[in-house]
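#help-structures

NK: newbie question. if I give both the sequence and a SMILES, will the prediction place the ligand too? trying with zinc ion
OV: yes, paste both and it writes out the complex. here, I ran yours:
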Amino acid sequence: GEVSEPVAATQWDFIQNLRRWGFQANPSKRCKDLGQCLSYYRDTEERRATLPYDIDGMVYKVNRIDWQERLGQVSRAPRWAIAHKFPAEKAQTILNDIIIQVGRTGVLTPVAELEPVTVGGVVVSRATLHNQDYIAEKDIRKGDAVLIERAGDVIPKVLEVIKDDAQKRSPKYVFPDHCLECGCRAVRLAGEAAWRCTGGLVCPAQAVERLKHFVSRGAFDLEGLGAKNIEAFWKDGLIKTPADIFRLKDRESDIRRREGWGDKSADNLFQAIAQRRTISLERFIYALGVPQVGQATARLLAKHYSELDGWRAAMDKAGDPDSDAYADLINIDGIGESVAGDILAFIKEGHNREVLNDLNGLLTVEPFKALDTAHSPIAGKTVVFTGALAAMSRGEAKARAESLGARVAGSVSKKTDFVVAGADAGSKAKKAAELGVKVLEEKEWLALIGSGAAA
Ligand SMILES: [Zn+2]
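OV: that's the protein plus ligand as structure tokens.
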């Protein structure tokens, strides 16, 4: 960092000064040549297990600071210092069981429970198995003898199975297709290595994070229920699911009696909750915390489907990938198959549906408020842009069309009203011609929205 004046002329004196001022410094040694460096490296490796903290190697530094400055650095790596890592430490043991941990985001991580074994002076009884593919690829099974590796302070991992042909093995490990914390369905989406629990709103492993998200600023914006209160209320059983927030009034006396809660803060909280009983559709969708559905995507969905019931009905239909509803969903510009997969997995999970029904009974979710586009000639129309426009960028054109009440889609379908073809328009213009969709040249388009903007 910054210093007001040079601390020392050499690295060695620098460290001695730090010690004198009361800072803790790692053990170090001045070496005169490479041989001394390597012998200190070997000494340290031997003492490694007795150190009160984990190290994964050591660093050699040029002692003279003026030389350090002359040597300088390449990108972020100094040319006057180099790391020398210790080899990872390995040990053999028995894998007793494979358990699944569910993380705060719902990811299912397989973990090996091991017969405790000492690796580099540390007793290890658990090691990561990464994911389903890792287990399958190495054919890791319960009861196997395994080689594990521990490098520095990272979580130890199972490297491989030590095969013993004489030993009868347990059956192949089958990765669970449901969450072991809440029983909800787990899904593994295309292109991902991890299985995830889809019960975001009910899963105890995810509940606290989801509830914090639910009350966050872009969602229900309940300032009186900050992260700390959510954690405390959850622990005490006051809030288990988002809908419980709107039933807190039933526990009013409990809350008023809580430590640190005066009448004023309780009044404020209940008032804020009462106000949030009416919420916009886009905030509501965002609050659900569906993976990949941030504020922008929630807004796209709200805009496209207008009402909560309409959205839910459409998502139910879209569960069939051959349906028009599915095509309609992935055709929303900004929502691809991956995002759609997360939304549909969320909607399909019965526990989430219960929470949605529960919330629906407690709240008024307002339909999406479109801008006043009564006089716009493209209000409610679906527009697809293709090719380069001369007058504005694609982003501007899109924003302009949306501000006039149009939907902008990414690809041409029979639901498309206009295709706006700029220079070098390719396959989309061709497809439009095939489907009989009206194709506008840029100047026709500008004339159309020009009159719309003037109205
Ligand atoms: Zn779960």
